[in-house]
Amino acid sequence: MTLSAQEPQKSEDAGPFDRFLCFAAYSTSLAFNRLYKSVLDDLGLTYPQYLVIVALLHRDRQAVSELGDALFLESNTLTPLIKRLEAAGLVTRQRDSADERVVRVSLTAQGRGLADRIACVPTDILKATGMSIEELGALQQGLMKLGDNLRASQRD
Amino acid sequence: MTLSAQEPQKSEDAGPFDRFLCFAAYSTSLAFNRLYKSVLDDLGLTYPQYLVIVALLHRDRQAVSELGDALFLESNTLTPLIKRLEAAGLVTRQRDSADERVVRVSLTAQGRGLADRIACVPTDILKATGMSIEELGALQQGLMKLGDNLRASQRD
DNA sequence: CACGATTAAATCGTGTACGATTTATCTAGG
DNA sequence: CCTAGATAAATCGTACACGATTTAATCGTG
């Protein structure tokens, strides 16, 4: 490997990780995260916070565990994240009266107001990928299948 | 979407994120991370620490910035990570005498001793993917290209 | 030689992630 | 009805990840 500190590497010279799909997933996820950060900064959201808002726009009053199933996260990550959304005035949290163990998360008017500004986010990201819809679709299919398999193998 | 809290969702019913490649990358990266955690726990390494060790096994005495180019990370992330590796006795850090700004990271004998145990890690992971080499290769190609594009769009 | 600009690490603050544990609530079997 | 187990959130400690800043060393140009 002949990495130069000045010129960031390209795939053609990707160092000792060429063989590792895992590294590809890892570094692409980092790149997405950084890109989202620049797009979402205007909204004052992080990427996981954005995902929670999108989930609630799709269906409101979800339990923490339901959000966790959708995002593949658990309460140890979600609870503080949701509390920050609450502090920002975007959601409210309240115990379910039918089952006091459950905390349901609802969008405030202000939170629902993000819908329009959120709508254009995927388009912005799409441009940055520089790839065709077909390529992206194939990648997504493969990744979802891979993710499912990894999570399944984790469980046993 | 009809998510049940009891049964984790599959791709066929992936909630409101079906359309989002970014979410696929994000959640697959999380799944990889969790899987690696269970494999690497025996070695006492995290996944990013493992990547640093692999990079140093490939070429020793790399500068922090060179490791950063290989891993797409910067000193704010790498410095504390490398200090933890140093505290674990796996690497040493020393200023480059030719350029005192540069810190070079070297494997200790103990660090190099991980090579054998690290060698079998990719095989373990491969099994968990449940996918063919061809599929994985295609995914990796696509992801590296995507990652390159995202990083390029980030720079301007 | 000087000195402003650049570069390499380090530092700091915030926000995920996650294993492990804790607390509160609910449910079933006796 | 009452308690053992299960379940949902929350809490705690550790480790990334990153924007912004700081410190120290080097370089470039006059």
Tell me the strand order in the biggest sheet of chain A: 1-3-2
Instruction: Give the rounded overall mean pLDDT of chain A.
Output: 89
Kindly state the percentage of residues in helix of chain A. 55-70%
What proportion of the residues of chain A form beta strands (DSSP E)?
A: 5-15%
In whole angstroms, how far apart are the ends of chain A?
38 Å
Assigned CATH class of the domain at 20-119 in chain A = Mainly Alpha
The topology string of helices and strands of chain A comes to HHEHHEEHHHH
Number of strands of chain A: 3
CATH homology group of the domain at 20-119 in chain A: Winged helix-like DNA-binding domain superfamily/Winged helix DNA-binding domain
**Uncertain runs of chain A with pLDDT below 50, 5 residues or more?**
1-13
At the third CATH level, what is the topology name of the domain at 20-119 in chain A? Arc Repressor Mutant, subunit A
Oligomer: homodimer
The helix-and-strand class of chain A reads mainly alpha
Largest interface, C-beta closer than 8 angstroms, per-chain residues: A-B, 71 and 71 residues
Globally, the shape of chain A reads globular
Architecture of the domain at 20-119 in chain A in CATH?
Orthogonal Bundle
Number of helices of chain A: 8
